[in-house]
# Entry
Amino acid sequence: MTKQRLNAPLARDAMAYVLAGGRGSRLMELTDRRAKPAVYFGGMSRIIDFALSNAINSGIRRIGVATQYKAHSLIRHMQRAWNFLRPERNESFDILPASQRIDELHWYEGTADAVFQNIDIIESHAPKYMVILAGDHIYKMDYELMLQQHVNSGADVTVGCLVVPRKDASGFGIMAVDDQGVITAFVEKPKDPPAMPGNPDMALASMGIYVFDTEFLFEQLRRDADDPDSKRDFGGDIIPYIVKHGKAVAHKFTDSCIRAAEEIEEYWRDVGTLDAYFEANLDLTDVVPKLNMYDRDWRIWTDQVVSSPAKFVHDEEGRRGQAIASLISQDCIVSGATAHRSLLFTGVKMGSFSSVSEGVILPYCNIGRGARLSRVIVDSGVRIPEGLVVGEDPEVDARRFRRSEGGVCLITKSMIDRLG
# Structure
């Protein structure tokens, strides 16, 4: 459901700046070769496509992406998928790897430093507003509505926020607000998160989304860069300083979340653990998914691989190519096999008599004949041996693969190689 916009769009005077340098170490071996924003999601997309698509759909046509950790696959994806923005239309797409631009000693030292080191590039585009985004969350949001609140409230910074259970809030920046939505306190990743007034079980958490007037942001970044005690971080340094010395205002995710007609909740997920990543992918297999990837009014743009349609072959009892409650991407061949409540990404091949139940199978995997996989994430390019069984004996699985607290097995090429 698209929220009502007012007046002339502010997005055309804004630049989106996506912070996409993080490893995402809680995704374990899934980020050994790629940054978290480059991890595959939803059958065809990458995690970063959600922040970038939100920016484009909101009307923002100037975008910068700061990368750092193992950025090759992320940069390659953006070059292929996001090269349609044209300078002659006052559009831009800058990929900004950590490159020791300030001196020869320092890479990006924190989220704020990742913007500070590129002030000259931002200035060349002359945006009036800056929308700072995390590149590693799954959600749909209209940033134009957040920009409107920022301007109308006269805030120095507007912080996107959502309500989360207090028991799960220690991984967020947590804030307290007054009746006008002004932030009165901001604590980054507290061990004992403060509760919302009148709701002791919930807390108000930062989404890592910030809107600034550009000139004010530059002033704060330069001030912070001169502070020898700063960790150069938005949540740890910049935002708490503004809360104390300026006006920081909270913007509720519910005010700008995009929901298709059948979506029953405002959907936002931090897919930072194997279990969270697995569950968010499987959410898409529901008859009425919590997140609608088929919404033509708010598309999630990504790299469109030129390949053949998915194919299902054989129609014999016990050897029937079929998929139930599953997402099957292009170039997949399900040959006398069964996929149930699973996602097969581009180019997956399933051999006869094999089965996948609750599986997230990343691109170009090959599942051998007779293999049985249940509650698995299979990294891209893995060849599953014939007859391999995963998901039926927890002790055996834990010895061979990475098994999460929720009983999900991550399978990578090196793990298969060790099986001999």
